[in-house]
Write a structure and sequence with these properties.
Elements lengths: L1 H4 L24 H15 L2 H16 L2 H4 L11 E3 L5 E3 H5 L4 E5 L6 H12 L1 H6 L3 E6 L3 H10 L7 E2 L4 H6 L2 E3 L11 H6 L5 E3 L3 E4 L5 E5 L10 H11 L2
Parallel strand pairs: 3-4, 4-5
Antiparallel strand pairs: 1-2, 3-8, 6-7, 8-9
Helix pairs in contact: 2-6
Organism: Allorhodopirellula heiligendammensis
Protein name: thioredoxin-dependent peroxiredoxin
GO molecular function: thioredoxin peroxidase activity
Length: 240
Amino acid sequence: MLKTLTRSFFLASLLGAPAMAQETSTTPTLSQQLAEKAAGFAKQAPAERRATFAKGIDVVRVSGVEKLAKQVGDEAVDGTLKGWKGDAVTLSELWNEGPVVLMWYRGGWCPYCNIQLRAMQQSLDQIENAGAKLVVLTPELPEKAKETAEASGLSIVALHDKDLALAKQYGIVFELPDAIAPMYQSRLPEYNGNDAMELPLSATYVINSDGKITYAFLDADYKKRAEPSEVIAAVQAAAK
């Protein structure tokens, strides 16, 4: 049953869609794509807005969330989550079969998240060929997560981390800084179905078959994400 899930359910699944082409040497890295997006924002946004977001990143970093979160060597936290079709997935059942890549994205309203999602889907075959399953989680309501996938042409399903319950157990949740929170007061309730001004770090973990974290990407800067090639290398190491 779990092998069937590999390509038929969660965000690590392509739902029977044709395999996407793997990245070529001419394809920009995820870091390059994110940097290009950030440069475009810096060029167009007013100086005050740029400064506000930069200060917000600093506040999140000073909070210590990066260091307080689960780290390499820690036991992974188990959980059972559902996608928009209502099917339940228990994480430990997946990592008992082999390594799991666990990745959070903030929401479809976040352009950096959408860039990351597309890059990870392009790398999905390589991740699976290395023996792992990719599981992506989001605080977005299931119907919003479906819209996110459809808007970017992704044939993938995200698991709903309701009220960021699992993310909180991993220690990756932070409250939006006061200067930033007003910009999200209408957005987050609409997407997440609650009034909490909270977001997860855009964290990526690799968990081995013993339920141990062997790779952790944790950065307070939402413009920084785990590079797929690094994740693949971490998966290959965890599968040995």
